[in-house]
Amino acid sequence: MDQVTSKIIAGIRFPLICGIVLIHLRIMECSGVYMGNINWYIFRLFSDILGRISVPLFAIISGYLFFVNVRKYDWIAYKQKLYRRLKSILLPYVLWNLLFYLVYVIYLVSTGRLVERYTDGNLFDIVDIFLWGSTGKPIDYPLWFMRDLFLL
């Protein structure tokens, strides 16, 4: 990757990170500012409209960086990239979801609310929890972006 592209990506990372923080920030609900107030509209502009472009832009950047240094597009190069992605994305994703799953099961056992669906030992259900969960999200919800990065 050339220096100009690297600087552009480095320059837009911080605003994109701020956009993601604004998406998750619910300060208006806590501050008592309600719809109709100009502050509400300004905050919604930055969080729900401008902030929401951060996630797709990060996905585009990730896709670009996945292929940026590939000299020859063939099956061998693609397999090498996927293998590196297995180590850098899929392995941490599986480990963190497994840790979250174990903590969740321990919590359910300790409170006496053991849910049969998550602890019956059915391999398909456990894989389903890691990939989609009962709500279409992984069991450790904040890791959905890592799952999507790998599946892309």
Written overview of the protein:
With 152 residues, this protein is mainly α. The chain is built from 8 helices and no strands. Helices cover 74% and strands 0% of the residues. The longest helix has 37 residues, at 75-111. It is flat. The two termini are 21 Å apart.
Short descriptors:
8 helices; 152 residues; mainly alpha; flat; 74% helix
Number of strands: 0
Main sheet characteristics: none
Question: What is the element string, with H for helices and E for strands?
Answer: HHHHHHHH
The gyration radius over C-alpha positions equals: 20 Å
Report the uncertain regions. none
**Number of distinct helices:** 8
- What is the subunit organization of this protein? single chain
Alpha carbon gap, first and last residue: 21 Å
User: What characteristic shape results from the CA principal axes?
Assistant: flat
The overall average pLDDT, rounded, is 77
Please bin the fraction of helical residues.
over 70%
The helix-and-strand class reads: mainly alpha
Strand content: under 5%
Helix-strand blueprint:
Blueprint lengths: L2 H22 L2 H5 L6 H13 L3 H14 L7 H37 L4 H4 L3 H9 L12 H8 L1
Helix pairs in contact: 1-3, 1-4, 5-8
Would you summarize the structure shown here?
The chain is mostly helical and 152 residues long. Helices cover 74% and strands 0% of the residues.
